[in-house]
């Protein structure tokens, strides 16, 4: 049984002992378990109650390591990586059951459900690319300083009036949106398909994935859902499980929700914005200014935009900005995700190393007084799309931010409000990598901040980077419909 993580906020009825667990499962005959692969896909199975209880009382149970040796479509990676390969016969990893994640799946006859983390069976240490293990390692750095990391995730996602079968029959073309038109924050569009719309909210609460907001976003059939702010580790779990919930509820109602970052070339993409803050053991925000500074702001702030952000908050922000280009695959892990960023400020999808007070045109938006009370001071990272793996995205932000505090880094330049369009052209503003290939090359290069042992280290970079190189290879080998339409007749 996995030790309880001090950064976790357990689910409502999570058991604290094997005896409590047995009582919770007294009337059950099976249990559902799942872990997360590098693409943020839940990989799991049903277990008999007896087998599950035996595993929970020990170190865990065996789980085939191939889930770290193949891609999102179960194609074995182009080259052998560190965790799962032909040389070791795809031996088992150890799946360690996290009892704090207990909940029941209301749309599956209330079957009990638990998340697992993957350990090396010999050392009992987290495998280098297990998403839950990577985030846990980062959060332990904060815990050692008696800090706690908190986060919130917001998803934008298209809905299609399709099924998995019709997607295949149509070859993913000419798909029918759930509703037509551009209707952000619409009170009318939510009355169409209202059963599905309300089910997402209500079943989330029943599934112990509480939400803060749920509304239509601009675009045909687009929703936006904000998950309730909580500990960073719990937020990553909730974010993954919300996708599972949305897709499950959708299947029951003939709807396919898509968290693809840019399904339409001529429409805004789907963001996966994340909000972050750090608190001390008493719950006080490390990013908040003192009461004495609330009137005029911090005297030694680098710029007016940061005057209501504490010195630690400014260092954290500087750390994020300093390392952002080196961890882009952890924030934007897909080929398609970079097409969302091409529009830059035109679609509020920033593609440069920028920041600003309450600025949705910046890569990092400072949310602080006077727009919110000091306790709500936080940073919003606006680079990720809805296709992010929340464990890796949150790991990247907190690892870089903590590095910024430790090194007392200075901000790289003025906020976005003081920059002009020409600044991007003359090199005054650092642009982010514009493709997965460029982003992966930068992350994997010698001297990358991601390679620093205190950030992610070589093992993680080599394995995760190798999975992104595989994705790029498949893309480079693909012949797209655009190419055929453009060149078949006239070339």
From TrEMBL:
The answer to keyword Ligase applying to this record is yes
Keywords attached to this entry: ATP-binding, Kinase, Ligase, Nucleotide-binding, Transferase
Pfam families for this protein: Gln-synt_C
Which GO biological process categories is it annotated with? Answer: biogenic amine metabolic process; glutamine biosynthetic process
Give the InterPro entries listed for this entry.
Gln_synt_N_sf, Gln_synth/guanido_kin_cat_dom, Gln_synth_cat_dom
Q: Please name the GO terms that the record assigns under molecular function.
A: ATP binding; glutamine synthetase activity; kinase activity
Q: Which domain of life is it from?
A: Eukaryota
What are the residue boundaries of the GS catalytic domain, all occurrences included? 131-491
Report the family membership.
Belongs to the glutamine synthetase family.
**Know the name of this protein?**
Glutamine synthetase
């Amino acid at each position: 049984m996995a030790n309880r993580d001090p950064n976790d906020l357990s689910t409502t009825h999570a058991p604290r002992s094997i005896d409590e667990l047995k009582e919770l499962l007294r009337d059950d005959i099976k249990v559902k378990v799942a872990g997360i692969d590098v693409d943020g896909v839940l990989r799991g199975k049903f277990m008999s109650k007896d087998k599950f209880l035996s595993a929970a009382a020990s170190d865990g149970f065996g789980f085939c390591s191939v889930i770290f040796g193949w891609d999102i479509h179960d194609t074995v990676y182009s080259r052998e990586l560190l965790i799962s390969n032909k040389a070791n016969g795809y031996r088992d990893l150890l799946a360690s059951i996290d009892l704090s994640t207990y909940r029941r799946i209301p749309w599956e006859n209330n079957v009990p459900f638990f998340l697992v983390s993957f350990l090396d069976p010999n050392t009992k240490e987290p495998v280098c690319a297990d998403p839950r293990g990577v985030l846990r390692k980062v959060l332990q750095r904060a815990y050692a300083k008696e800090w706690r990391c908190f986060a919130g995730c917001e998803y934008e996602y298209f809905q299609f009036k399709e099924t998995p079968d019709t997607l295949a029959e149509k070859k993913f073309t000419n798909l029918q949106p759930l509703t037509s038109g551009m209707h952000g924050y619409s009170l009318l569009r939510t009355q169409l398909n209202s059963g599905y719309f309300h089910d997402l909210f209500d079943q989330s609460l029943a599934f112990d994935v509480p939400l803060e907001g749920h509304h239509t976003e601009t675009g045909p059939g687009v929703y936006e859902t904000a998950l309730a702010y909580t500990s960073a580790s719990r937020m990553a779990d909730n974010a993954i499980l919300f996708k599972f919930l949305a897709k499950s509820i959708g299947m029951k109602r003939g709807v396919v929700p898509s968290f693809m970052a840019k399904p339409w070339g001529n429409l805004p993409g789907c963001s996966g914005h994340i909000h972050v803050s750090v608190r001390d053991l008493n719950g006080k925000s490390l990013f908040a200014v003192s009461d004495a500074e609330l009137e005029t702001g911090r005297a030694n702030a680098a710029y007016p935009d940061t005057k209501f952000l504490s010195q630690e908050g400014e260092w954290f922000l500087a750390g994020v900005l300093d390392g952002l280009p080196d961890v882009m695959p952890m924030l934007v892990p897909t080929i398609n995700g970079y097409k969302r960023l091409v529009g830059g400020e035109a679609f509020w999808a920033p593609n440069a190393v920028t920041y600003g007070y309450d600025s949705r045109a910046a890569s990092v938006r400072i949310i602080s007084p006077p727009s919110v009370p000091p306790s709500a001071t936080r940073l919003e990272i606006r680079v990720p799309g809805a296709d992010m793996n929340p464990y890796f995205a949150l790991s990247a932000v907190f690892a870089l931010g903590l590095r910024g505090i430790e090194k007392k880094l200075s901000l790289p330049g003025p906020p976005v409000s003081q920059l002009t369009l020409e600044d991007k052209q003359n090199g005054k503003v650092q642009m982010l990598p514009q493709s997965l290939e460029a982003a992966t090359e930068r992350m994997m290069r010698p001297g990358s901040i991601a390679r620093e042992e205190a950030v992610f280290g070589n093992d993680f970079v080599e394995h995760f980077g190798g999975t992104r190189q595989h994705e790029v290879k498949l893309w480079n080998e693909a012949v797209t419909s655009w190419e055929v339409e453009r060149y078949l007749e006239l070339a």
